[in-house]
Write a structure and sequence with these properties.
This protein has 376 residues and is mainly α. Helices cover 76% and strands 0% of the residues. Helix 3 packs parallel to helix 14 and helix 14 crosses helix 15. The longest helix is centred in the first third of the chain and has 35 residues.
Length: 376
């Protein structure tokens, strides 16, 4: 969001706001799959749609997830580097080992209870947007009236925004979590409402990050390539302490996301090969599942040490997710619409067609992006 705000100012604020209903719909569908089917998306695709579909979904999810894990490892390392004034590459491997320990020793739930409050630091972007003296007339105009740009910055930004919000691990993890938690059908609507509120507040923070960055870096044509660059958007509220504030938020979000990303990779592989899986199992009870967790972290560390800057890799991961997202979204809608898989309770026509429309729209943006890369 910092990169998008710095390169397109407020032009994509309308697309950010549009993500609220889109994400709510997708989370409702994925919650439905987990609760009604009592399992995850990869399991259902393997069970009902043949080997090509199984390995297409598995391959796309794994590629995007590994790149995103690498990007989040770099982001967390960059945050520690900001806080300690040290090179970020020193902290990639320790952060990977910490993630592995959280998952293997079952302490992620306890850590999550603390870290989710650390993310309240992201509310400083609300204050930063106000103190940065943003041109609110323009912000309001671009938030209501779509701005369709076909230049590189707008195409990249649009696809990255779709990829970072609709990336497959988000709703696949939702199907996993709901399938394992197993709430009653009577409580399904409570889970859907909970998911909707989460999406609303998440997108609200996205919007303020975009506005704050646009008002500080975008108007001065300062692009975001490093964590230090992105931190400058918080100067109106934090002054010379902006890098510390940004570092805390970035580290908290990375530590929250990494176990979910790594867990998703292990779950989809385990579902594909029907292994014993689940973070509630001990190491000896699901050794293959935990082996995939370790392999995912090792592979991601290797990718992260290639030399791409953390913020750049995060943006690249979002674009990769945007290209792959339509396929996994299509499978999500197809599975949720299957009466047999959903044990007689498929999603209704409205959700089915809306979900299909979202998948098609994201696919169109991805095709336009790819065409621009090949043909200019």
């Amino acid at each position: 969001m910092s990169v998008i705000g710095a390169t397109t100012l407020y032009d994509l604020s309308w697309l950010t706001i549009l993500m609220v209903p889109v994400l709510v719909i997708i989370q409702i569908i994925s919650s439905h799959v987990g609760v009604q089917g009592r399992s995850d998306l990869q399991h259902f695709v393997r069970r009902a749609y043949g080997r090509p579909s199984q390995f297409l979904l598995l391959g796309l999810v794994l590629v995007v997830t590994i790149i995103t894990i690498a990007a989040d490892l770099e982001a967390g390392a960059a945050a520690v580097g900001l806080l300690l004034h040290a090179p970020w590459r020193w902290f990639v491997v320790p952060l990977g080992l910490l993630t592995l320990a959280l998952l293997v020793f079952g302490t992620y739930d306890e850590v999550e209870k603390v870290l989710k409050y650390v993310l309240l630091v992201l509310l400083t972007y609300v204050v930063a947007a106000v103190l940065a003296n943003a041109e609110w007339g323009q912000v309001l105009h671009h938030s209501i009236m779509p701005t369709i740009g076909m230049d590189k910055h707008h195409l990249d930004g649009s696809l990255a925004l779709l990829g970072t919000t609709l990336t497959s691990y988000v709703y696949i993890w939702q199907t996993i979590e709901m399938g394992e938690e197993g709430p009653s059908r009577a409580r399904l609507w409570l889970k859907k409402i909970d998911a909707a509120f989460g999406m609303f507040f998440g997108v609200a923070i996205f919007w303020f990050i975009l506005v704050a960055t646009g008002a500080t870096l975008g108007v001065h044509h300062e692009h975001v390539e490093t964590a230090q660059d992105a931190a400058r958007a918080l100067r109106p509220v934090a002054g010379r302490f902006a890098s510390y504030l940004f570092g805390i938020g970035l580290l908290g979000s990375s530590l929250l996301a990494l176990p979910v990303l790594v867990g998703t990779a292990a779950y989809v592989v385990g579902a594909q090969f029907d292994w014993e899986r689940g973070l509630s199992h001990r190491l000896h009870e699901a050794s293959k599942f935990y082996a995939v967790i370790a392999a995912s972290i090792i592979l991601s560390v290797v990718v992260s040490l290639v030399g791409v800057q953390p913020i750049t890799l995060l943006f690249m991961a979002s674009i990769a997710a945007g290209i792959a997202t339509p396929v996994s979204l299509a499978y999500l809608v197809i599975v949720a619409s299957n009466k047999q898989l959903m044990k007689g309770h498929p999603i209704g026509p409205w959700l089915r067609w809306t979900g299909a429309l979202i998948a098609a729209a994201v696919g169109l943006v991805g095709l336009i992006y790819l065409a621009s890369q090949f043909f200019g």
